[in-house]
TrEMBL record:
<keyword id="KW-0697">Rotamase</keyword>
<feature type="domain" description="PPIase cyclophilin-type">
    <location>
        <begin position="54"/>
        <end position="241"/>
    </location>
</feature>
<dbReference type="InterPro" id="IPR002130">
    <property type="entry name" value="Cyclophilin-type_PPIase_dom"/>
</dbReference>
<protein>
    <recommendedName>
        <fullName>peptidylprolyl isomerase</fullName>
        <ecNumber>5.2.1.8</ecNumber>
    </recommendedName>
</protein>
<keyword id="KW-0413">Isomerase</keyword>
<dbReference type="GO" id="GO:0016853">
    <property type="term" value="F:isomerase activity"/>
</dbReference>
<keyword id="KW-0732">Signal</keyword>
<dbReference type="InterPro" id="IPR044665">
    <property type="entry name" value="E_coli_cyclophilin_A-like"/>
</dbReference>
<dbReference type="Pfam" id="PF00160">
    <property type="entry name" value="Pro_isomerase"/>
</dbReference>
<dbReference type="InterPro" id="IPR029000">
    <property type="entry name" value="Cyclophilin-like_dom_sf"/>
</dbReference>
<feature type="signal peptide">
    <location>
        <begin position="1"/>
        <end position="21"/>
    </location>
</feature>
Length: 300
């Protein structure tokens, strides 16, 4: 279906939805969402990071970067990051962590069972992936939208799709070679979406809770925001998969299904802001400004 026809179809769908965004606010959309529209994040996709400031929860995206996610799961199971550090906090850009001795072969922490090198997983075929399209044009991708809870771009001509560098995106650092990543050096976007990185680095997931513990870290004073002395490093207490934690310590979270009726209403509510505060309701939307709601799974 051509872009113009698809756009018209989606506009018609939004208009046909009862109580659509012509009247609903974001809060009202979430309040009326049905329980079945919320999907629990499996424990083997939930990475739990503990630092002194608090806990950070990260959802992994194996459908988009299967080899990187597999390596990250192995590294977490080995306790690879325990006692390592956050090494970089660049203003309006990223926070990055890993081994302070990564460039010293005699001192760096061994990857053990994890692979030493992974293929670049910058994008993947669209086959088999659902796609909730966003109507609005984008500067970096022919099409944008959402797939399995993540913001994505699409290239219809080449039938490729990829995760976007929005705020809170989790990525795997690399050197000059495209296939030089292991997943042991990770970063999170903590500033305005650096979309120029899309399809240049493997993205592996997103922070779903606790981003404030990273975004508020002191800025590094070295080049690219790296901390200049070990005393500035932020220690990592522990990173584990939720599946590997005792039941009593295992966080349980669910996210609004990005292929649900309520998520389509949420998109329209964000495009046409109906909250009383807004003088001009905008009428357009950028993919990284669409909230991806997450909540704690109710007990019982």
């Amino acid at each position: 279906m051509g872009h113009a026809r698809l756009t018209a179809a989606l506009i018609a769908l939004a208009a046909a939805l009862p109580g659509s965004a012509t009247t609903l606010t974001t809060a009202e959309v979430l309040a009326q969402s049905a329980p079945q529209e919320w999907k629990e994040i499996p424990a083997d996709r939930l990475l739990v990071m503990d630092i002194e400031r608090g806990q950070i929860l990260l959802e992994l995206a194996p459908e988009f970067a299967p080899e990187h996610v597999a390596n990250i799961r192995i590294l977490a199971g080995q306790g690879h990051w325990d006692g390592l550090a956050i090494l970089r906090s660049q203003d309006n850009y990223v926070v990055q962590w890993g081994d302070p001795n990564a460039e010293k072969p005699e001192a760096r922490r061994a990857l053990r069972q994890a692979k030493e090198r992974l293929p670049a997983e910058f994008d993947r075929p669209v086959d088999g992936l659902p796609f909730e399209a966003l109507l609005d044009p984008d500067a970096y991708a022919a099409r944008t939208g959402f797939s399995l809870g993540f913001p994505v771009g699409r290239d219809a001509d080449n039938q490729r799709t990829w995760l976007l560098h929005c705020y809170a995106t989790l990525g795997a650092g690399r050197d000059m070679a495209a296939d030089s990543s292991t997943g042991a050096e990770l970063y999170v976007v903590t500033g305005h979406a650096p979309r120029h990185l899309d399809r240049n680095i493997t993205t592996v997931g997103r922070v779903i809770e606790g981003i404030e513990h990273l975004s508020s870290l002191p800025r590094g004073t070295g080049p690219l925001g790296f901390y200049e002395s070990p005393e500035q490093h932020v220690p990592i207490r522990r990173i584990r998969l939720a599946a590997d934690l005792p039941e009593s310590e295992r966080p349980r979270r669910e996210r609004l299904d990005t292929h649900s009726r309520s998520f389509r209403l949420l998109i329209e509510a964000r495009r046409h802001r109906r909250e009383e505060w807004f003088v001009n309701p905008v009428g357009r939307l950028e993919v990284c400004n669409v909230p991806l709601p997450v909540r704690t799974v109710a007990e019982g």
